[in-house]
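Following up on my earlier thread - several people asked me to post the actual chain instead of describing it. Fair enough. Here it is, all 201 residues.
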Amino acid sequence: MTVIFRGLILTLMLLLGGCASSSMVKAPNQQLAAVPADKAQVVFLRSSLFGAAISAPLFDVTQSEPAFIGILDNSSKLMVEVPAGKNTFMVVSEAADFLEADLVAGKRYYAVVTPRMGAWKARFSIWPVRADGDAEFKKADPKVQKIISNTVLMQNSPKSEAWFEKNKTDIKSKQAEYWPVWQQKAPGELLERTLLPTDGE
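Reply from S.P.:
Thanks for posting it. Predicted structure:
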């Protein structure tokens, strides 16, 4: 396969290849709910023209078994409330990638899902939004503030839940394949991909 031909296929798949992209529904209340005193809240954001046609399914894998958070499309956000302490989240495409988190009860945290080129379509990574420092995504950055303000809060529907049930075997297979890869990352790399207690607001 020539490079040009492969590039055309990649472009076509990026344009046409969605993943249950119409199955989520707009939340009736676009205001983020107040954070419960006994839980932490994580808001996942996505805003990128590259790979916009490819959806990014998100999961809470803290207890190993994937718990479906929702499907994150471009220009949207998802919110989940979880117990304080150590948590792990996963995004799936043709591969799987992860975000670790050490969360404080009563605090809200943000994470940005970004696409990158895979073998045949976009893959995704999850990046913490830092309270400060030199991270790629910082809360005070006007670009991050714009993403928070301009993305639409979405929620699951019977259609998205059905998608999860239909694809659960494949999701768990990717989790099993790529979690060991994640665990082999250097400590510094893992720290860059971890929400810290101080990142909450």
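The chain has one domain: 3-199. That should answer part of your original question.
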